Amino acid sequence: MCERRVSRRRWSRAGAARRGVLRTVAAGLAAAQMLAPSPGLASPDETVEVVVSAVIPERCGLGAPARAESPMLDLESAQALDFVLPVECNAPFAVAVQGEHGRLLNITSSPDDSGYAFDKAYGVRLTLRTDQGLVRSDRCVSSDIVIGGTCDFAGDRPGQGLDSGGGVAVPGEVTLSIDWPDQSSQERRLAAGEYRETITLTVGART
Question: How far is it, in rounded angstroms, from Cα 63 to Cα 61?
């Protein structure tokens, strides 16, 4: 009977050992499953780049009313006047000037044989105020700012005219300066009447 007891103890110890090994293997498999990456997820050595692109469109315009008029002035006396117009451009820009007639024209009387003059030339300049300072043009005679005129800042399309260089206007100003001499320096006196000229300014991003 003693031999049977010893045999049972040996069998019981061997089974316990096998059961312990099985439990260790099962625990190891469970841990490996927990540490394995899930399907569809990037492994740690992969990278993803996200590129974001955006744009600000060029915007350029005058903040002035569509029409600005001077007071009634004496055309026979020397005059100099400035029209200051707000402008906003978020890119380098240019301002072009175009005269309708290229002179101040008598609109109430027609030329006759009286010997009087019925039109008068004038001078024009531009000044741009930008974030990089002032940009000034040379003086042009009014006959050179009509269509086909030779003035450097003459034009009728956005992007033409006096260039702001690298400056922008957020906000800025465009100053149109007009002048004419005393009539005593001219060959003829002016006929009575109202004289008028229309000058168009066009602003746009530089071409």
Answer: 6
